[in-house]
Amino acid sequence: MLNIAVMGYGVVGSGVVEVFYKNRESIQKRAGKEMEIKYILDLRDFENTPYASKFIKDFNIILNDNDIKIVVEVMGGLNPAFSFVKSCLEKGKSVVTSNKELVAAKGAELLKIAREHHVNFFFEASVGGGIPIIRPLHQCLAANEIKEIAGILNGTTNYILTKMIKEGASFEEALKIAQQLGYAERNPAADVEGHDACRKICILASLAFSKHVFPEEVDTVGITKITLEDVDYADKSGYVIKLIGRAKKLDDGKLIVTVGPSLISKHSQLASIDDVYNGIMVRGDAIGDVVFYGKGAGKLPTASAVVADVIDEAKHDDTEMSLFWTLPEKSIVTDCKKGSIQYYIRAVNAGQAQVETQFGKVDYLTRAAKPENEIAFITAMGEEGVLDSKAEALGQNGAQVLSCLRVLDY
Amino acid sequence: MLNIAVMGYGVVGSGVVEVFYKNRESIQKRAGKEMEIKYILDLRDFENTPYASKFIKDFNIILNDNDIKIVVEVMGGLNPAFSFVKSCLEKGKSVVTSNKELVAAKGAELLKIAREHHVNFFFEASVGGGIPIIRPLHQCLAANEIKEIAGILNGTTNYILTKMIKEGASFEEALKIAQQLGYAERNPAADVEGHDACRKICILASLAFSKHVFPEEVDTVGITKITLEDVDYADKSGYVIKLIGRAKKLDDGKLIVTVGPSLISKHSQLASIDDVYNGIMVRGDAIGDVVFYGKGAGKLPTASAVVADVIDEAKHDDTEMSLFWTLPEKSIVTDCKKGSIQYYIRAVNAGQAQVETQFGKVDYLTRAAKPENEIAFITAMGEEGVLDSKAEALGQNGAQVLSCLRVLDY
């Protein structure tokens, strides 16, 4: 009998318990052994569940029970998750987590501790909810040099943008609907400011490029400043605006890692990923572009990813997995302003002459109710920092640059 | 040093050798050991490659060399691939193949032999080219009951249909272009008659439902009878026509498995998969719908999937993987005519009265240059066999049913 402890009985934790008992028979068959959830750690009381007898409030019971071989951490947040996970790994227990904040901040450290103690640290559910992405990426990686990863990594913002694009709702209106439906938190900052997407691209980049990429190294912009004017210009020119997290390897081996609302072609496979769905594109030298699509969040999808990790660990409990990255001596992330990009720019009180003085030849965009004094265009490819200076220069003498978004070629 | 033999130096085989030597350093790092391709088996001469010294023409050299732990079978076809692979497994060598014909016909048998001899039989490249699908499906499966799999599994037919839909090319014109570009064989039957897609859905269904599904059990229809009229009606009504391979589990545990041109909504994630790309949707009870997208064929994508399998085997050469299915005592596939479906029907010389006599209330479709005597509609949900009888009855008394396609709800 393989005993498991689940730490946290929130949305994901209760989903893990539900999926485990619902599909227990096939889970045990696939794992090749009998399995049981012995403890559920939560400070709250849950007296009316069928699992009431399993609840405990003292983490040390899990830590000191040598029967517990696998610990599922689904509490979220950095503390006490980090110290709990660290202690479990040091005690020789494998850990499965859905906690992206933890993996993005402490992944390299925890992977190292796991390796030193011959156990595993798995986190399939930390990116893309139920979409299998961590292992497939690891598998793609096996025979490919990964050149770029780009994804719609946050369901809340994708829902809001979809409402703006498809129904003409303003950002504020769309956010309110998302909150009513439970897709957005009452304090939506982690989603709409891009922090959640940032953590996820950090995890993917760390895995793909074998060195830890920290959230602080990522140029992160949210969607709060996206207006219906931008959505409209994009739409009329064959683009959609999506919040894209991306990590791109440059020729010198350094990475550009950004999160920001970006224009992508309607023909892109990422363009048709709507509502709360996520999609992740992996670009490899042999494989070309591969896209993984599915529900990026939610109780059961995320729980099923956690349970899949548990089964994998149960099956291979004497094998150390090769999912791994290390702390770099020096950051492998370079200033995104040094990368080449095209910009979409919307400005008022600037004429074509001023635009072309700064940017040379550009593609002008239009929309139905375009005011006389508004101008929107897509620049030629240029160094991002140089384009920023030009945009700043354009916004002089009464002119004002209202939007400045990357145009990406997926 | 782990020695590998590659059997077959065609498109995929030469790709495997190319990817292996190009990314050898990272491949060895990921496998955790030194690796070498010791032999390449091919009856033809390849004197001008850098690997000329590795070529052999006698399979027994591979079979009897105890240094060879992994054999890559990329010859294609059933014979002699089957006897070669069988012999290798029986000699305790793990086998990696891209050969869908082999896996679809002999998968259960070879998996059994592999298990008996404590080696592995891997075939990630047999479906979806470079798209990781076999392992992710296996992983999804771990915590999910799979309810349905549906995919665009053949790049050639998808290219032809895309040309018809986007450029108004006829089937014959589109096929000719596909042949000129090397996407279609001179004898295109295996692709356009649906046999290739059929083999792939057999492999996916066998894996998802643990029992071998044979190509002969699958209701398989190709795209040769699709006309621009059908494409046009679909387009004007919010659908596209795609060649869909699907396996659906019914409440009684039996499967419906079909391959055929089908109408799917333009909003479906499968609808935007164009040209030679493939996409596979997996529907699980916890995970919801997950879609995997990428290049379904081609030298390097397929080779990279083969090499990923080789690395996985090298890494876990003492572990037997749980990818497995068995020969069923009795087929688990039921007659697709017993399933519920909606039909798209196009007929001539039949009026609305006759249509409604047979089908009751239907949705009529229209197109720009619709001739007076043509009628097209989508039926309500009904048992497929019953709808067939009604369509036959409609095609009486001078009326003629020209097209009858499934409408699928992905």
Radius of gyration of chain A, in Å, reads 23 Å
Strand content bin of chain A? 15-25%
Work out the helicity level of chain A: 25-40%
Largest interface: A-B, 51 and 51 residues
Largest sheet of chain A: 11 strands, mixed
CATH topology description of the largest domain in chain A: Dihydrodipicolinate Reductase, domain 2
Structural class label of chain A: alpha/beta
Low-confidence stretches of chain A: none
Any idea what the shape of chain A is? elongated
Mean pLDDT of chain A: 95
Task: Tell me what you see in this structure.
Two copies of one chain form a homodimer. Chain A is α/β, with parallel strands linked by helices. Chain A has helices at residues 11-22, 24-31, 59-63, 81-90, 100-116, 134-143, 155-167, 171-180, 189-192, 195-209, 228-236, 299-315, 352-359, 384-394; strands at 2-7, 35-41, 55-56, 68-73, 94-97, 121-122, 146-152, 219-220, 239-249, 255-265, 277-284, 288-295, 340-348, 363-364, 374-378, 382-383, 400-408. Chain A has three domains: 2-129 and 299-315, 3-Layer(aba) Sandwich (Rossmann fold), CATH 3.40.50; 134-295, Dihydrodipicolinate Reductase, domain 2 (2-Layer Sandwich); 336-408, Alpha-Beta Plaits (2-Layer Sandwich). Chain A contains 14 helices and 17 strands. In chain A, the strands form two sheets. In chain A, strands 7, 8, 9, 10, 11, 12, 13, 14, 15, 16 and 17 form an eleven-stranded mixed beta sheet that branches. In chain A, strands 3-2-1-4-5-6 form a six-stranded parallel beta sheet, sandwiched between helices. In chain A, helix 4 (81-90) links the parallel strand 4 and strand 5. In chain A, helix 1 (11-22) packs across helix 12 (299-315). Chain A starts with a strand and ends with a strand. The model of chain A has no long low-confidence stretch (mean pLDDT 95). At the A-B interface, helix 1, helix 2, helix 6, strand 12 and helix 12 of A face helix 1, helix 2, helix 6, strand 12 and helix 12 of B.
